[in-house]
Amino acid sequence: MASSPKQAAQTAQNSTALRVLARAGFVASGLLHIIIGSIAIALATGTGSGKEADQSGALAQLTQAPGGLFLLWAAAIAFTSLGLWLLLSAVLDHSWDGKRSRAAHIVESLAKGIIYLVLAFTAYTFAMGGTASSAQSTSTMGAALIKTPGGVVIVFVIGLALLGVGGYMVFKGVSKRFERDIRVPSGLAGSGVRILGTVGYVARGVALGAVGVLFLIGAATHDPSKTTGLDGALKSFLSVPFGVAVLIAIGVGWITYGIYAFFRARLALL
Fold it and tell me: Which residues cross the membrane (predicted)?
């Protein structure tokens, strides 16, 4: 008898190949975070002119690295696998930790899955010789929304959502809630992973919160140039007091999260 779609999905989710490739997705994510963090530091020190401090900017940097084409294809496949695993987890996984609802598990897994699939699409675009700009795409979307009846409200809601997610990331880092996602090793290794996770999540949260604030400003002023995503948010720190120091700290934090993601590839509960 032919297997049902649900059985086929469960078989796919439980396959060793998909799990291995999904773990590789965390490695690819870590690499992108390290590159973005490095670009942020370069911007703060005046050596990063012309670079985008976001995912597309990081992938563009990969194209210039030795073996860059191989890395892009590997990242695209890994992101696709992790995205698919998360989508399957949203539908099939009933083993969440009991401290959150089934609905929260579904929403979080679906959102993360979609994000990784978008990253995969961007990586495929670069691997096939194309180009992409996250900042330009986000700004174009913001401009289109602001010109649409009721669009300002949508931009405002997006800003609030981004601010909320950023705040949650800071909370997740400070409270060490990220430990629910991994098998924390004992001893000194465990302490190191906790420090990496705490610093990394806080830095990601601050950056994402800044994106949310810019969306709110864009909605309030009807200015789509404010809705430029992560790149615009990080560059905005250059125009505020002590912004250079903050941007360097965020860059270090993103590099720290990248290192944490390497450990997560081994320790993640998949």
Answer: 20-44, 70-92, 113-132, 152-171, 192-220, 240-263
Three-state secondary-structure class, residue 53? coil
Q: Please report, rounded to a whole number, the percentage of residues in the chain having pLDDT higher than 70.
A: 87
Cβ neighbours of 12 (radius 10 Å): 14
The Cα–Cα gap between 120 and 75 comes to 7
Query: For residue 195, what are its two tokens?
Result: 């420090």
Alpha carbon distance 108, 181 (integer Å) = 12
The pLDDT confidence band at residue 4, using thresholds 50, 70 and 90, is: low
Nearest to 27 by CA among 269, 267, 258: 258
User: Nearest-5° angle of CA 86, CA 26, CA 89?
Assistant: 10
Q: Domain ranges in the chain? A: 5-267
More confident residue, 87 or 4: 87
pLDDT at 80: 95
Angle separating helix axes 187-221 and 229-236, nearest 10 degrees: 90
Tokens of 77: 């496949």
Q: Three-state SS for 268? A: strand
Q: Cβ atoms within 10 A of the Cβ of 195, count? A: 13
Nearest to residue 25, comparing CAs of 105, 84, 93, 92? 84
How far apart CA 265 and CA 22 sit, in angstroms, is 8
- Residue range 200-246, pLDDT digits in tens: 999 999 999 998 998 899 888 888 777 778 888 888 888 888 889 99
Return the pLDDT at 1. 42
Q: Contact 260/197 with Cβ under 8 angstroms?
A: yes
> Comparing C-alpha atoms, which of 114, 94, 110 is closest to residue 102?
94
